[in-house]
Write a structure and sequence with these properties.
Elements: H1 4-61, H2 66-86, E1 92-104, E2 118-127, E3 133-147, H3 154-159, E4 162-177, E5 186-198, E6 202-204, E7 210-212, E8 235-248, E9 253-264, H4 279-286, H5 288-294, E10 316-327
Antiparallel strand pairs: 1-2, 1-10, 2-3, 3-4, 4-5, 5-8, 6-7, 8-9, 9-10
């Protein structure tokens, strides 16, 4: 049987628990309108940021490809807003990304060249767990390209190929902090994830006219005469991975430097991969422009079946630059 002292202590504990429960309920009701109001403000900020991405960035960097990328940007905006709804009340941060991008593939000899550096910008929405693992979803807008004239080897220069393409990428990545962010203000990290991107390689013909390469099937892609060479899609998967270093300046702001490599499934980022095909056949099937841009050497064509590129090595591109992060989560002040 319970003694009087035990019953007294039990009633005392129950009274304390009820008091805490009532206090928490009262605080929830008190600050609920403030949380809802600040959540609406955050949603408004996200809408404004995504509208800015759709209009300003497209006009500044990719104006000529705006119609082609508008659907991609709208999908990215929808994805961001969906995640912001699911992440209500969590530790969400926005990241403005600015830096440079570069391509490596069939038209390059050196891994890095200042002549191939192009601008890149983007935006990430990141869940900051406060622990070792963070998650983020982001969009990246970049331009890459290369020219055989910039290579040192004589056979590359004689081949005389060149290309450029705009890239619009949507990615989902996990960041693994190498030290405890609850203790350190300077945090090295690594990341990896999955992405999808849109590209559309183009070059300039002998008269200086801009010409998109995919419709020309310069290596026989999609032609019945070369059934093994399927036409490549302008939407492809990529695997982003890399490393970075971030500095927490305040509870609301964060500055990072990041290097990110993109492993690609396709080898046609530059429209060059396999061997030369018959120029007569290209002229018949696709027209003289296809034959002109499939073979650009200054001597007669005798190389049908000879390497045009290197299909054993995939193309890739990378991004490096700064990220400026700011807090998006509601801040409830307890008075």
């Amino acid at each position: 049987m319970e003694s009087c002292a035990e019953r007294f202590n039990k009633l005392k504990r129950e009274k304390q628990v009820n008091k805490i429960r009532n206090t928490l309920t009262s605080m929830t009701e008190r600050y609920k309108p403030q949380i809802n109001h600040e959540n609406k403000i955050i949603k408004g900020k996200l809408h404004a940021l995504l509208d800015w991405t759709n209009s300003t960035l497209s006009q500044l960097f990719f104006n000529h490809a705006k119609m082609r990328s508008s659907g991609f940007i709208k999908f990215s905006a929808f994805f961001f807003l969906l995640i912001s709804e699911l992440g209500y009340g969590q530790k969400w941060m926005g990241e403005v990304v600015a830096g440079v991008s570069q391509y490596n593939g069939d038209l390059t000899q050196q891994a890095v060249s200042f002549k191939r550096i192009k601008p890149a910008v983007g935006f990430n929405l990141k869940y900051n767990s406060g622990d070792l693992l963070d998650l983020r979803v982001g969009v990246l807008f970049a331009r890459v390209g290369a020219d055989d004239k910039d290579n040192k080897r004589a056979d590359y220069k004689a081949r005389n190929f060149s290309f450029k393409t705009n890239i619009q990428e949507l990615n989902v990545c996990a960041e693994f902090n190498l030290v405890d962010p609850g203790i350190y203000l300077q945090i090295p990290y690594v990341f990896a994830g999955l992405g999808v991107f849109h590209f559309n390689p183009f070059t300039y013909d002998n008269d200086g006219n801009k010409t998109y390469l995919r419709p020309l099937s310069t290596e026989g892609e999609g032609l019945p005469d070369y059934p093994a060479r399927k036409q490549y899609s302008l939407f492809q998967f990529c695997i982003p991975f890399g490393a970075g270093f971030k500095i927490k300046t305040t509870d609301k702001w964060q500055l990072s430097y990041e290097f990110g490599y993109r492993f690609l499934i396709t080898d046609y980022l530059d429209d060059v991969s396999k061997t030369y095909v018959s120029l007569e056949l290209l002229n018949l099937r696709k027209g003289p422009k296809s034959a002109e841009l499939a073979y650009r050497k200054n001597y007669p064509f005798v190389e049908e079946g000879y390497p045009r590129g290197n299909s054993k090595v995939r193309d890739y591109y990378f991004f490096t630059g700064l990220k400026f992060a700011f807090n998006l989560s509601p801040q409830v002040k307890i008075r």
